[in-house]
Amino acid sequence: MKTTTLIIILLPLFISAQTTTPDVITSSGAYFSNTNGSLSWTLGELATETFSNGGNTLTQGFQQPVSVSITGVNLDLLVYLEGPFNGTEMNTDLTGLPDPVDGFPLSQPYNTSPWNYAGTESVSSIPNSNVVDWVLIELRDAASASAALPADIIGTQAAFLLKDGSVVGTDGSSILYYNVTVNHDLFVVIWHRNHLGVLSANALSQTGGVFNYDFSSAVTQVYNGGAGYKEIATGKYGMVAGDANGSGELNTSDHNLWKTNAGKKGYLSSDYDMDAQANNPDKNDYYIPNINYESQIPD
Predict the structure, then answer these.
(1) Could you tell me the CA-to-CA distances from 173 to 158, 218, 248, 281 in Å, in that order?
(2) Statement: the pTM of the whole predicted model exceeds 0.85
(3) Which among 228, 240, 252, 265 counts the fewest CB atoms within 10 Å?
(4) CA-CA distance, 86 to 283, in Å (whole number)?
(5) 114 with 297: CB under 8 angstroms?
(6) Is the CB of residue 111 less than 8 Å from the CB of residue 158?
(7) Which helix (H) or strand (E) holds 255?
(8) What is the pLDDT, as a whole number, of residue 243?
(9) What pLDDT is stored for residue 16 in this prediction?
(10) Parallel, antiparallel, or unpaired: how do β-strands 210-214 and 68-78 relate?
């Protein structure tokens, strides 16, 4: 007796995205969709082969591939800085400094080398008493972490880091939003002015329309984490302190900046523990122990 096999594949679409609409071209089959999802089906065929002319793809006997480009990224991150971390959360000493004389800046501080970020993020006052410092958050659209190069940057924002490790916008509470399109996988770079920058080791996953990533849960959350990331408390991992000039490594230039600022108070690049002064603990507790660490962000 002749047997006919019916293959049904459900393709749920829960993201804000642009998609190619598949057409079913078989001896029998169809494609249906509504606001809740889509369904396509074909009858199984004995012969299978794929043809492509660069713009269109035809797969005989199977479902057509669907490419998805995500437009609009809501970003919820968790990350710690080693310097101000006190074992449970980060200290907020810097935001108590007066502005503008050597105080906490009300405009993003990454408009200088090596970041050269031209963003205009600024506030009239510190929006949240839990603010630790400014960070620079960069999105890269790539097939893998190792392939996430500067040429793959699709969005950058300066943001506030709160003492619990969350990253928020300049209103002091909202997660970040990027009006960008992701065609491959989404990776995140976090820069800080005196800690080694990090890149997410894994592509970010989306839940409920939000891309989430927790850098603090394991050293493997960071690309090549063992060389440029560290455990800062039992089971907690954070960005390595000591990179005063933002070069991506701890070297003589960082030590010279510390010597220049030693004994001073203010918003200083060589204040690694971020207690608003450069002193011996910055050198002895952070710069010297971390001398062998180096940022692993692909460049």
Answers:
(1) 14, 25, 29, 32
(2) no
(3) 252
(4) 17
(5) no
(6) no
(7) helix 252-261
(8) 98
(9) 42
(10) parallel
Q: How far is CA 33 from CA 11, 23, 59, 61, 67, in A?
A: 9, 12, 20, 21, 16
Residue 165 tokens, joined: 């490790």
Instruction: For tokens 């992701």, name the residue.
Output: 182
Q: What is the token pair recorded at 212?
A: 């989430």
Which ranges of the chain would DSSP assign to H, the alpha helix? 225-228, 252-261, 280-282
Q: Which amino acid is at 14?
A: F
- Residue type (1 letter), 217: S
Cβ contacts of 35 within 8 Å, gap of 6 or more: none
Q: Quick check: 245 and 269 in contact, CB under 8 A? A: yes
d(CA 215, CA 260): 33
pLDDT one-digit tens code per residue, 48-98:
555 544 444 455 555 555 556 778 999 999 999 999 999 999 999 999 876
pLDDT in tens, 113-160: 999 999 999 999 999 999 999 999 999 999 999 999 999 999 999 999
* Summary mean pLDDT of the chain: 85
User: Could you tell me which residues come within 8 angstroms of residue 102 by beta carbon, excluding any fewer than 6 positions away?
Assistant: 264, 265, 266, 267, 268
CA 117, 188, 140, 225 dihedral sign is positive
Cα–Cα distance, 48 to 88 (Å, whole number): 58
